[in-house]
Amino acid sequence: MTRIISKTIAVNRWRALRWLMLLAAAAMATAAGAVTPQEAFRAENEVAMDKMMTAMVVKPSGDLDRDFAAMMIPHHQGAIDMALAELRYGSNEQLRRIAQEIIVEQQQEISAMQFALGKPLPPSVPSPTQVGISEPRAATPENQDHTQ
């Protein structure tokens, strides 16, 4: 069992590192003009989807409610990550407003699920705006470990 846990931790660390490297590469390439906004958008969304799908793989705990939340929290975080990419690269004002709404609503639902499971609520963050939304949401223990 210890060997499995160690391997899982190593795999998750590698995936997190890979995600950070891809995100950094996309940001640097965009800043240098090496890729189009469409390419950067696609790369960020691919990373977000990979991260979400990996985090949604949850070993059943025997507690249906906990398992539901453990899968839904990363699903909602994936929606937030994709909405942030829309705000960074999108130009359609209606879709940008929808992306802002997605971020707010999904953060509220993540908080509600964590609260329902007895976890502390995450710190408040400002609502997204169309200006200044250049940084992805900071990694915190609350939005990284969804299986506890």
TrEMBL record:
The keyword Transport does not apply. Residues 118-148 are annotated as: Disordered. Keywords: Signal. Residues 1-31 form the signal peptide. Pfam families: DUF305. This is DUF305 domain-containing protein. Residues 32-114 form the DUF305 domain. It comes from the Bacteria. InterPro entries: DUF305_CopM-like, Ferritin-like.
